[in-house]
Amino acid sequence: MDATDYASATERIIAAAREGRPFAVTALAVHGVMTGVQDPAHEARLNSFDLVTPDGQPVRWALNLLHGAGLTDRVYGPTLTLKVVEQAAAEGLPVYLYGSTQPTLDRLVPALLGMFPALKIAGVEASKFRGAQPGEEAEIAERIKASGARIVLVGLGCPRQEVFTYAMRPLLDMPLLAVGAAFDYHAGLLKNPPAWMQKYALEWLWRLGLEPKRLWKRYVLLNPAYLSRLAAQKTGLWKATPATPTAEPVHGFAV
Prior knowledge:
The chain is an alpha/beta fold and 255 residues long.
């Protein structure tokens, strides 16, 4: 997890786009962090990312509490997406949208162009909602490169989008951003919680109210597990041992 802010994160991403170099990014809230904790192989993949931002307030609190990071705000995936897209539009860096469904993309494209008329959208590609077939990752990479894109936004949901970003990073000389629900928010399919709920780390309660059947396990089980580990680490009862970053290939990942 990187102790970063919006300005620094945006500049690092845009710099990689300008220079044409691979750069894997994700924004992790409690669910994303705990997905890594529960799966050592996935943790090793996450630790190989170039930039991991504190998407949730509890993650920001942990950086401040355990490491004295002094962060005054989180770096929320949907907001980071807009800041990156805004700068990409200003610099003429084309963006590729990968993931979600075609109806969502059909709403997202005009929404982004409405906010940033100068934005160049090089291409869009909906998720197939299945595992990659042999050689398919190379075909996807070729389509993205042929489009002229300089940045890829990936909206496949956690942890599928992080695995996709990890797997595609060696194939693309550009940043890939795993941006979670940003596609749905900016397409107008999900509504952001009030600012006060975001400030006091209650966004989970808002989302649970919107999608209780899908999200109850994520929040009811993982939030207490995260807080207990944070307390144990702060009091010295438990010491985290980060997984060594990996470059092992993955096969059959979600596309």
